[in-house]
């Protein structure tokens, strides 16, 4: 999209984004942790609302909108969507109208996410499961485009090839790129962006699938990141979805609570908890070379867990 550092910083300043995010040493008392050098890159601290990888993915799209004076964005997501939440806040701040196509029902109980969307002036439209899927297919999209001819359309999860370059600044934040980078996978966009923008192939990327469905995520990543080198240094581990998206076994919840107690790092079970579970298991399996630097990319996302958490989340 022809964006540069200046576009990044102008937008970051306008929204109060703080990067680089800290990369902190992390030393849990887990079996195998002492054999490697563990770090957590705290993208959850980038901004109190536009958390983690949502900033990384959205900034090129928002910068493009600003440069071309696009004042209306249409996007898609569920009733707890971190993507819509971050996007709605950013649009509110930038004076862009957001139409949010939400998978759900108007008369269903309102979620904390939807309350925030309303507060930030997003126009929410509800679609049932079937209609929601239709609206994102070429025919359904064309319908919406006829309806909103001047709007910029952004896929669910912000998964668009236009956003791939958004991940490039993350690499620049490392003094030395780590041996291993571990991150959760939803749409696959973050992984695809990291693959597309890395300068060298030293870092092994391990995606932890938050969704059920072998191979489906690999093809999403490959669709986004049209790699000439399919054997590039990455894979997705499918063992830790715990039953699927937004499903969470009691053991997973417990792990999240314990990590929060022991380290002060907040995690939710939809994405980050699964990465923590994966990391713990991979350490037991001795999956990393001795003394390897292993970074867990904390992608944020705590707002989405508010509906399930007893205490609620302060943001
Ligand atoms: C959206 C989200 C993801 C998934 O990112 P993708 O780019 O869709 O794979 C991971 N973690 C958190 C916290 C998220 O909010």
UniProtKB/TrEMBL annotation:
Signal peptide interval: none
Domain of life: Bacteria
Pfam family, any one: PALP
Gene3D superfamilies: 3.40.50.1100
Keyword field contains Cytoplasm: no
The Tryptophan synthase beta chain-like PALP domain, residue ranges: 31-300
Required cofactor(s): pyridoxal 5'-phosphate
InterPro entries: ACCD_DCysDesulf, TrpB-like_PALP, TrpB-like_PALP_sf
Keywords tagged on the record: Pyridoxal phosphate
SUPFAM superfamilies, alphabetized: Tryptophan synthase beta subunit-like PLP-dependent enzymes
Family, similarity comment: Belongs to the ACC deaminase/D-cysteine desulfhydrase family.
Record's protein name: Pyridoxal-phosphate dependent enzyme
Species for this entry: Fluctibacter halophilus
């Amino acid at each position: 999209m022809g964006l540069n550092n200046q576009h990044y910083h102008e937008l970051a300043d306008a929204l109060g984004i703080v990067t680089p995010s800290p990369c902190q040493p992390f030393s849990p008392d887990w079996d195998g942790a002492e054999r490697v050098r563990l770090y957590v890159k705290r993208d959850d601290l980038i901004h109190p609302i536009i958390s983690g990888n949502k900033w990384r993915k959205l900034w090129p799209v928002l910068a493009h909108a600003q440069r071309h004076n696009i004042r209306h964005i249409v996007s898609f997501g569920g009733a707890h969507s971190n993507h819509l939440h971050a996007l709605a806040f950013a649009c509110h701040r930038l004076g862009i109208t957001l139409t949010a196509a939400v998978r759900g029902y108007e008369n269903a109980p309102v979620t904390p996410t939807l309350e925030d969307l309303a507060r930030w002036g997003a126009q929410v439209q509800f679609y049932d499961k079937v209609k929601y899927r239709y609206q994102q297919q070429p025919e359904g999209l064309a319908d919406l485009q006829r309806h909103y001819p001047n709007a910029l359309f952004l896929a669910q999860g912000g998964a668009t090839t236009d956003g791939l370059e958004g991940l490039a600044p993350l690499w620049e934040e490392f003094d030395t790129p780590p041996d291993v980078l571990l991150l959760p996978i939803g749409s696959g966009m973050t992984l695809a962006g990291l693959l597309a923008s890395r300068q060298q192939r030293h870092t092994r990327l391990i995606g932890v699938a938050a969704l059920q469905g072998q191979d489906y995520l690999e093809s999403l990543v490959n669709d986004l990141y049209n790699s000439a080198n399919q054997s590039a240094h990455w894979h997705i581990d499918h063992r830790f979805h715990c039953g699927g998206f937004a499903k969470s076994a009691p053991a997973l919840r417990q792990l999240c609570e314990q990590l929060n107690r022991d380290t002060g790092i907040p995690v939710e079970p939809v994405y980050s908890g699964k990465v923590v579970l994966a990391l713990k298991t991979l350490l037991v399996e001795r999956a990393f070379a001795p003394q390897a630097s292993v970074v867990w990319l904390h992608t944020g996302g705590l707002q989405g867990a508010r509906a399930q958490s007893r205490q609620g989340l302060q943001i």
